[in-house]
Amino acid sequence: MDSHTDPRHPCIGITSGDPAGIGPEVIRAALASGKLPPGFRYDVIGEMSGHAAGRPTAAGARAAAAALESAAGKLLSGEWRAVVTGPVSKNALHAVGYEFPGQTEFFAARAGAADFAMCLTGGGLTVGLVTAHVPMRDVPALLRQSEIVRVGNLLAGFLSKAARNNPRIAVAGLNPHAGEGGDLGSEEIETIGPAVRELQMGSLAEFSGPYPPDTVFRRAVDGEFDGVLCMYHDQGLIPLKLHAFDEGVNVTLGLPFVRTSPDHGTAFPIAGKGLARPDSMIAAICLAARMLSAQL
Question: 79-103 burial string, b = 16+ CB within 10 Å, else e?
Answer without folding.
Answer: ebbbbbbbbbbbebbeeeebebebb
